[in-house]
Amino acid sequence: MSRITQRAANGPLALVANGAFQTSTDASLKTMVGTRWDLSDGRELLLVRAGAVDVAAGKLYQDAAIVANHQNLTVTAYTAYSNNGNVPASVAVTLGATAATANQYAGGLLIVNSSTGLGQTLRIASHPAANSGAGLVLTLEEGAVTAITTSSKVCLIPPHGADVIINPTTPTGAVAGIGLYIVPTTTYGFLVSRGITAGLADGTITVGTPISPSTSVAGALVQTPYATNVVTAAVVGYANQAGVTTEYRSVFINV
Fold first, then answer.
1. Which residues have CB under 8 Å from 155's CB, separation 6+?
2. Percent of the chain scored above 70 by pLDDT?
3. CA proximity to 240, closest of 188, 198, 190
4. What average pLDDT score do residues 143-167 get?
5. DSSP letters along 164-202, please?
6. What does the buried/exposed string (b/e) look like for 75-89 if buried means 16 or more CB atoms within 10 Å of the residue's CB?
7. For the chain, first and last CA: distance in Å?
8. Which has more confidence, 228 or 160?
9. Which candidate, 141, 64, 67, 78, places its Cα nearest to that of 107?
10. C-alpha span between 3 and 14 (Å, rounded)
11. What is the pLDDT of residue 14?
12. 13-22, 67-76, 133-142, 230-239: which range is least confident on average?
């Protein structure tokens, strides 16, 4: 059995007897979603929480879909960290026509996409629920280096690895990895984010060629398409075994 070690830890962590093939409903793991783990055979795993559908082995998964109405939001106020550190930084925004559930973005990111402070990426600590079109205050884990103002616009990005879904034929979020085993809905488990694993092929895939998410079969992989010698899709790894359509063959994933 491959030993499993959290990235930067000094030794293997025996969480449960089945090593990497473990699931948990322990809600405290929510703060660890998105962390990287190493197997002793060199593979890298990502701790995730399954979304509304079970994670299946050998299929490609992505983060929860980015909500269109939670992008390019108007900032109504910014509070910097207090001098003594007792009051955290926060950003108040006005949502678009989609409500937000409590802590939907906890562990996710706030990106300043335009005007004052643009280009900054800040991690979200917590926030309450808010109705469609309502105001929402997001508490941040760190303050902005360049203060955000009411002229700024921001985007809310879901936490990496939270409520993962099978990679759709039109991507709606960041690729998270390939399922290593069945992870039941709303349960925590691991995806392979780097290394050799089985992957579902859509069409014929040649050994040694780069692979991309399929645009016709959700969760499948295709040989990376080219047009006039230009790559036309995101590369998520390469094939180290000939891929046969509808079958699962060895790939090296790297996301």
1. 70, 71, 72, 73, 110, 111, 113
2. 94
3. 198
4. 96
5. BEE--SS--S-EEEEE-S-B-TT-EEEEEEEEEEEEEBS
6. beebbeeeeeeeebb
7. 24
8. 160
9. 141
10. 8
11. 45
12. 13-22
Among 73-82, 83-92, 122-131, which stretch is predicted with the lowest mean pLDDT? 83-92
What is the secondary structure of the chain as a DSSP string? ---EEETT-SS----STTTTS--B--GGGGGGTT-EEEETTS-EEEEEEB-SS-B-TT-EEEPSPPPGGGSSEEEEEEEPPPTTS-S--EEEEE--SS-B-TTTTTTSEEEEEESTTTT-EEEEEE---B-TT-EEEEEESS--SSPP-TT-EEEEEPPTTTTBEE--SS--S-EEEEE-S-B-TT-EEEEEEEEEEEEEBSS-B-TT-EEEE-SSSTT-EEEPPEETTEE-S---EEESS-B-TTSEEEEEEE-
Say what the pLDDT of residue 228 is. Answer: 77
Q: Residues 191-220: pLDDT tens digits?
A: 999 999 999 999 999 999 999 999 999 999
Q: How many residues does the chain have?
A: 255
| Structural domains of the chain, with CATH | 4-63+163-254 (no CATH), 68-157 (2.40.30)
Decide if pLDDT at 242 tops 90.
yes
Find tokens 């802590």 and name the residue.
Answer: 103
Q: What is the CA radius of gyration of the chain?
A: 20
